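for the writeup, i need someone to sanity check this before i put it in the appendix. the sequnce is what the collaborator sent (i think, or maybe the updated version? ugh). structure was predicted straight from it, no edits. if anything looks off just tell me and ill rerun, i have time this weekend
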Amino acid sequence: MTNIIAQTDFNLQVECLFAEHSGCAFAALRFAEPKFSLFVEGETVLAEPKGSPRFPYGTFCELETALTGNELEAHIWH
């Protein structure tokens, strides 16, 4: 049986991935795709790049309106 990742561990790993790749890399306007999606494998959160076979099964922030710079970073982090 697979272990379930704790919410605190998930959040910490996501924050690290956002810091590494930029939170903006995980966000896109509706019907568009970001550079990365978040994918959980066991107890590890991965940044799956666009084009990866697992990319469509990951999750990302879908925006209804375009945000730029600081607005986008603030939206992703909160």
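Strands lie at 27-29, 36-41, 44-49, 61-63. Residues 7-67 form one domain.
thx in advance!!
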